[in-house]
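The following block was generated as part of the benchmark described in Methods. Ligand: adenosine-5'-triphosphate.
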Amino acid sequence: AAAKQTRRSAKPVARTPPKLSSPTKVLYPDDGYRKLDVAQYYEAVMDHLLPEIAGRPLSIIRCPAGTGKACFFQKHHTPGMELVRFVRLKEEAGNNANYLVVDDAAAVMELVQFNALEFHPWGAHADDPDRADRIVFDLDPGPDVPFAEVRRAAMDVRRRLEELELESFLRTTGGKGLHVVVPLQPRDDWTLVKPFAQSFAEALAQSEPDRFLSVASKRLRNKRIFVDYLRNGRGATAVASYSLRARPGAPVAMPLAWSELSKLTRGDAFTLADVPARLKRRRKDPWAGIELVKQSLGRFRPK
Ligand code: ATP
Ligand code: MN
Ligand code: MN
């Protein structure tokens, strides 16, 4: 009985991740990074990545033959996945489907074994999928926008959110733009959160039409920044902080402190090669406390 007692009160034993097959397979042909390098990257950032994706419906980008060949976006649980859980959710078409959910490091590493390079969570948890707890304003610059303008856009989004008494957080995407992330208490569902995000984007575009637009048209973008509010909705995703991107250089979506923005020169400034060392070096998590921010959108509910 004593032994049982001990076992019950002990921390759950960490599950063993699957053995990595083809560790020397090159997944980033431009950089020579192998599957083993990807696995070691995810092991190194796991304590930071996991809180950003655990318990949320999760999409992944898999590149079985590396980023030089076809990659695909996967939302659903597939045969052979044993450590990755699923949650059965209604899809837009009305049918139900099994969405991927990871709860621990072993499950993440199982997805890496399946050649997942990118992780894209919902802005809601699997056990409460209609209640949003993250808004993402995804700033997508047109081809002729200098990065200084993307920086300025992120600061403007932050300031306008502050005017609404909403605190926000910054991350690079590992691509061309930046994300401004607003944590929410999981109170309001997407039918409030999505129109809020849309109105916010539209107001920005209306007040400064030379800098911003709120429609996805690439043709109209040119010198302007699309304030992509479409990351906010049931089933929509945004790249997770600390996820790699399946792009040359193996860039990382990196959370930053607002104070770090002024010296940032590009959205893909952080990579597989430097992020683990950077995490060891840094004294403070720039997003520390994001889970403790108590804010919601109830007061914006239409009367
Ligand atoms: P960038 O800074 O280069 O724009 P990004 O991650 O913001 O990087 P976007 O093209 O703006 O890239 O895409 C925003 C999000 O849309 C992605 O992070 C992803 O979660 C989602 N997305 C991308 N591809 C697909 C897809 N095939 N199906 C569904 N959602 C996708
Ligand atoms: Mn984007
Ligand atoms: Mn976008």
